[in-house]
Amino acid sequence: MIRVVNTEYIDLLRFKVDRTQRHAQVVNLAIALNKTYGMQILLLLTIYSLLILLSSHYVVVGIFAFRGKTGLLVINTVLHSFTLIYAWIQVILIISNCEMCQRSVDAFYRELFRLMRESKTLCSNKKLCLYVSMRKTVNFTACGFFNLGYPLITSIIAAATTYLVILVQFSIPKT
């Protein structure tokens, strides 16, 4: 009976160490992906931010110019509305995937720490203790300029709103 329990414990310990090694590989790959695609993410977010700003401008100007007009102006405003929605979806997808990866890395560390707190035998493994204490995290950035997270979405909204107010003030003719 003791031998069966001991082999189950050894198998569990090997499983935990194997999972931590796989987790370390995934974290290293995520860091490498961030370094590799940081410039592309920066360019994409810059392009989408400009697209959001310009599409918002054309939609607002189109709405104010609707008064009694139809046809091409309506179609143009609708197309810019779809462009605006597309750009927002792309920005949200990029940022939410980065956030999801960061949260899953943190969740793994929390779960491993919880398991080690509950089991004194897992705490005796030096590899697991070192892995938990090192706690390598993933922080996605756009080429190091800004962090990719949900606060970035609010920053884009604030910047676009500010510029939109300025652009609309100068572009709507006074009647």
Automatic annotation (TrEMBL):
PANTHER family (UniProt xref): GUSTATORY AND PHEROMONE RECEPTOR 32A-RELATED, INVERTEBRATE GUSTATORY RECEPTOR
Keyword Oxidoreductase found: no
Protein name: Gustatory receptor
Keyword list, A-Z: Cell membrane, Membrane, Receptor, Transducer, Transmembrane, Transmembrane helix
Protein species of origin: Apolygus lucorum (Small green plant bug)
A GO cellular component annotation in the UniProt record: plasma membrane
Transmembrane parts of this sequence: 41-66, 72-95, 144-172
Lineage: Eukaryota, Metazoa, Ecdysozoa, Arthropoda, Hexapoda
Localization in the cell: Cell membrane
A GO BP entry: male courtship behavior
InterPro entries cross-referenced by the UniProt entry: 7TM_chemorcpt
Membrane topology (UniProt): Multi-pass membrane protein
